[in-house]
Amino acid sequence: MKTLKDFFRKETVFCVSFLLALISAAAVRPDPAYLTYPDYRTLALLFCFMIIVAGFQWLGVFSLLGETLLKKASSLRNLSVLMVLLCFFSSMIITNDVTLITFVPFTILVYQMIKREDRILRIVVLETIAANLGSMATPIGNPQNLYLYSMSGVTLGEFARAVLPYAGLSLILLVCILFTEKNEALENISVKEQREVRIGKALPQLLAFAGLLLLCLLVVFRIFPYIPVLICVAGAVLTVNRRLFGKVDYFLLLTFLCFFIFIGNMKRIPEISSALASLVQGKELWAGILTSQVISNVPAAILLSGFAGNFSLLLTAVNLGGLGTLVASLASLISFKFYTVEYPRKKGSFMKVFTAWNLIFLGVLICEALILT
Q1: Which of 95-109, 119-133, 283-297 has the lowest mean pLDDT?
Q2: What does the mean pLDDT of the chain come to?
Q3: Which of 87, 232, 255, 340 could cross-link 131 (Cys pair, CB 3.0–4.6 Å)?
Q4: Bridge partners of residue 75, in order along the sequence
Q5: Would you tell me how many other CB atoms lie within 10 Å of the CB of residue 82?
């Protein structure tokens, strides 16, 4: 029983999606039409990006990047700016959750070394906001972007208009907040992390993963078909380091699959389909933001996409919806976990600071959305 409780706590979203899929299957008996529900292209791309990013982590690319930028920090203010903006821009390529997994522990370590633990909570919260908002700027920055861009058929220009104004304002807000810090001098810091493979000795592997990333980007922009690239990525990883297959978040893929089944079945029930469509169409902004606060923005994007009429607005909504509650973006739980493991008595403090800053950013960006839409 304890094992089941632990599993539910760890994979709550998957468990809920699985339950919804089962309930919907009782209403719509499984048949060959089920095979048409999933967006196989999105699932393939998610798998490929997760395993490629795991490859870069294995090579120590992100840790080296953090260490290199850290050497440029000459003051406490500069250190804060570098750490937060590193999360903002890194998330555009390696996704918000991988960014936080990589750099939040690194941040805690650095601030402990300079004996400024009083700054850690604020910086970790701002890093979390930066990763969630920076990731909105590209089609591959987070799972909801990848899914909506892949399935909706929006053009790159439409995508940019839906997200870049908000990412730009978010960047300005973050920089303004960071520059309110005192510009205290900072002694030189040397952070050394053991990496399984030194990049200098693994240039062929690095180039291989860079090539795979390029292939996946060509699939995202609808230049290459996804099946040959999926086979290529799987074959290359099998050759280079098959242990990377264990780094893939398969429960995220299964969550997508369960939601595809649930949405597909709901669309086959006329009464429910028309009711949901009337609740969502024309109200995508508020539907996306409010739904994200409860079930997080990735499942909100999958759920609402089946009934939305304006995919650009839905794209804006689920990205802004990542702000607010702790569960609005599941990536935020990563920061919460790292911080509270290190400081278990400060869970309440984290929630207060996190919620306050998130509501400030959410309020400002909602105002921008109301003006622009």
Answers
A1: 95-109
A2: 88
A3: 87
A4: 185
A5: 17
